[in-house]
Design a protein that fits this description.
75 residues, alpha+beta, 4-stranded antiparallel β-sheet
Length: 75
């Protein structure tokens, strides 16, 4: 299981993240505090809000998705 921390700074970033997640054939969860959201749900991701630290959890491998996660990654 891979876990990365990201921050999406605006709605366009959320759209890009969800688009990349939707192209994956494995489950991707996003955790914010105690809330878990399906990363493939645009409404869910926007509902979490932008400019928050999010933890992305996934078990598969997709190069495009990995690149998008790296783009929004924080330490």
């Amino acid at each position: 299981m891979n876990e990365k921390n990201i921050v999406l700074n605006n709605v366009e970033a959320a759209k890009e993240f969800v688009k990349a997640a939707s192209e994956c054939d494995f489950d991707i969860d996003v955790k914010c505090d105690r809330t878990f959201i399906d990363a493939k749900s645009l409404l869910g991701m926007i509902g979490l809000g932008v400019k928050k630290n999010l933890q992305v959890c996934y078990g598969g491998k997709n190069e495009n998705f990995e690149n998008v996660v790296a783009k929004f990654a924080v330490a």
